[in-house]
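To: structure subgroup
Subject: Chain for Friday's discussion

All,

I'm putting the inputs and outputs inline so they're searchable in the archive.
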Amino acid sequence: MRKVLLALTAASLLAIGGCATQEAAKPAAPTISESAKAALAAAQSAVKEAKAKNALWTTADSALKAAEAAAKKGDSVAVLSNAQKAQDHAKMGIQQTSYPVQQVKDL
């Protein structure tokens, strides 16, 4: 009888100990809206194109980094705002490459 009680006690302690070591469920990663995902992808593409043409403005790069950071936090509004700014500035940088070259003597 004593051996049976000892075996049951040991088994119950192992079962309780096993439950205590289970990890708590991890919170879900923050998500952004589909329109924010699309805007971020478009901004990344525009910045990549501007960089390839050596026309990337620093403001476009900074805005893209801010949009990516906001995406990690799940802030769709900030993603949309910064992604639009990055895309606009990247496009303006590309357009600037078609401007005529000015020299001091021309002024």
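Points worth raising on Friday:
Helices lie at 2-20, 34-52, 58-73, 76-96.
The chain has a mean pLDDT of 86.

D.
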